[in-house]
Every structure is written in structure tokens, then in C-alpha cells.
Amino acid sequence: MTTESTAPVIATVALPRATIRSELLTSRIRAAMWFLLPMIFALAVVAGWPLLRTIYFSFTNASLSNLDGAQFVGFSNYLRWTTLKSGRILWSGVLADPAWWNAVWNTVRFAVISVVLETIIGMVVALVLNAEFIGRGIVRAAILVPWAIPTIVSAKMWSWMLNDQFGIINDIMLKLHLIDHKIAWTANADTAMTAVLIVDIWKTTPFMALLILAGLQMIPKDIYEATAIDGIHPIKTFFRITLPLVRPALMVAVIFRLLDAMRIFDLIYVLTPNSAQTKTMSVIARENLIDFDKFAYGSAESTLLFLLIALVTILYIWLGRVNLAGGDR
């Protein structure tokens, strides 16, 4: 008789709890949406509307002096062809422009090399900063100085340091007998990309180190104490324990840095503004948009840049199984 009288009581108590939990979850989601609405609206105004306008102008013959009178021309800015009487076909448009594909190559090369080196060096710096030593707080603050300096200021500072006539870099290397003559780092076609990479790695490595350090701080210290007791070699500990545990933070750091590297503009515009060896997609799009008054053509290049970045992001998240919330999927 006790069992029969207890069962209905349990059912009547469990049902309200489930209902309350469901209503609480719904209330939280509704509150989160209200908090997100201002941000979504701001993004739509600041980023979404200009993006849609750029895509629209890429299908027109718009110019800076006649944006309102732009006429629809289809895919002519992207690719078009003309057949001559001789039967020869002349291709034109962004997709047939050698300067555009050179910019694509420069962008991809810069992004891959810079992100790989910054990730490796950033990992080393993060491991050092994660260790216990005297003055660690001061070192952590000092390491962020290059990242805190505005990019324009960094670029201008390094342009003076890399100058072939009075730059300190040439002076030091001459005194150390590493070179036998002064090098025009930013003006020389063979060293222009190297100079840009050096400056970018110097500035952005602290950013990678900071994100990786945040991931290292989440690893329990007990794991390392257990490996030390078992006598496991530190290198083996890094590849078997540290790297897998810090992988979610590392993957998020890489995708953030990769997106930033693929749209690089200010650093190259200041250091090597007219060098074909370093001209990226952002730089060449800006030239056509503003300098050459080929607004529709520049809009097409900007649209292709957006599509390329979106494609790279989707592939990276899908292939790397990246969860931007902070973990693996």
C-alpha cells in the first residue's frame, strides 16, 4: 500500500520541476536574444549593409563620381571575353587579371608563412610565460608591448629601422659581418616580403602567445605533477599531454590570426606601398576603388576577397573540427 501511494506523489513532483526547468531555459534564451539584438543590429549597419552594397556595385559599372547612376552589367567585372574577327578571344575582368592573381598569391603566401611562424614562436613564448619564475608578471606585460602598438606606428618605426641608408638593422648586421653591403629591405624585390613578414611576426606573435597561454592556464597542474613522478620526458609530455589539451585554444587562435592575415592592408600599405612583390588583395582592391576610380572593378575584387576568406574559414572549421565556443566538436 505504501508503494501505491508513493508513485503518484513522485510523478506529481517530477512534472512541475521539468516544467520549471523548461520555462527557465526559455527565459534565459529570450533574455540572451534581447541582449544580442543591439549587437546584431550594429553589425548589420556597420558590416552587413556595406557588404551588400559592395556586392551590388560589383555587378554594375559604378564609379566614385557616379555611384547613384550605376547600371547593371552582370558578371562583366569578374570575367568577360571578346571574340575578334580573326577568331582570337580576349579575356578581361578580375578573374583574367594577372595583377589580381599575383595579389592572391602574395596574400596566401603571407598568411601561411606568418601564421605558421607566429603559432610556433607564440607556443614557445606561452610555454615560457606559463612557467614559474621571478618577475613573470613584468615579462608578461612587456611581451604585449609590440601587439599594443598601433600597426601604422609599428610599420613606420620599422620602415626607418630597415632603411638602407640610416637604418639600424643594416648597421648592426654590417658590424656583425652578416652582410657586406647595405640592403634596401623594403625596396628590394627579393627582400620586400621578408621585411613585411619580420614586422608582422614581431607585432602579432604576442597575440598568439596570449591566446595559447590562456589555454595552458586551463590545464590542471596535477597532470604535470603525475608525469614528473612517472619520469616522463618533458618533450613527450608536451606532445602527448600539453598539445592535445591546448588544441582547442590553439585552433581558435589560428583561425582568428588567419582571417586577420588574409585581409592585411595597413602594414603593407605603409612599408611597401608600390611593390608588386607584396601587394595583397586588400591593397589592390583599395587601389582600384580609390586611386584608379575603377569602383565597380574594385568592388568585384573586394567581393572575391570576402568569398575567399569565408571559404577558408568554413574549410578550416570543418576540417579542423573547430568549435569557436572553445572546444572540439
Key attributes of the depicted protein:
4% strand, MetI-like fold, 329 residues, two-stranded antiparallel sheet
Short summary:
The protein is mainly alpha-helical. The protein is built from twelve helices and four strands, in the order αββαααααααααααββ. Helix 2 crosses helix 7.
Protein architecture, described:
This protein is mainly α. Strand 3 (322-323) and strand 4 (327-328) form a beta hairpin. It contains twelve helices and four strands; from the N terminus they run αββαααααααααααββ. The model is unreliable at 1-15 (pLDDT under 50). 69% of the residues lie in helices and 4% in strands. It has a single domain (94-328), classed as Orthogonal Bundle (MetI-like fold), CATH 1.10.3720.10.
Strand content: under 5%
**How do the helices and strands follow one another from N- to C-terminus?**
HEEHHHHHHHHHHHEE
Provide the low-confidence segments as ranges. Answer: 1-15
- Find the count of extended strands (DSSP E, 2+ residues): 4
Mean pLDDT: 85
Quick one: overall form? Answer: globular
Rg, nearest Å: 27 Å
Write the layout of secondary structure elements.
Blueprint: H1 2-57, E1 80-83, E2 89-92, H2 98-130, H3 136-143, H4 145-148, H5 151-161, H6 168-175, H7 192-217, H8 221-230, H9 234-262, H10 266-271, H11 281-291, H12 295-319, E3 322-323, E4 327-328
Antiparallel strand pairs: 1-2, 3-4
Helix pairs in contact: 1-12, 2-7, 2-9, 7-9, 11-12
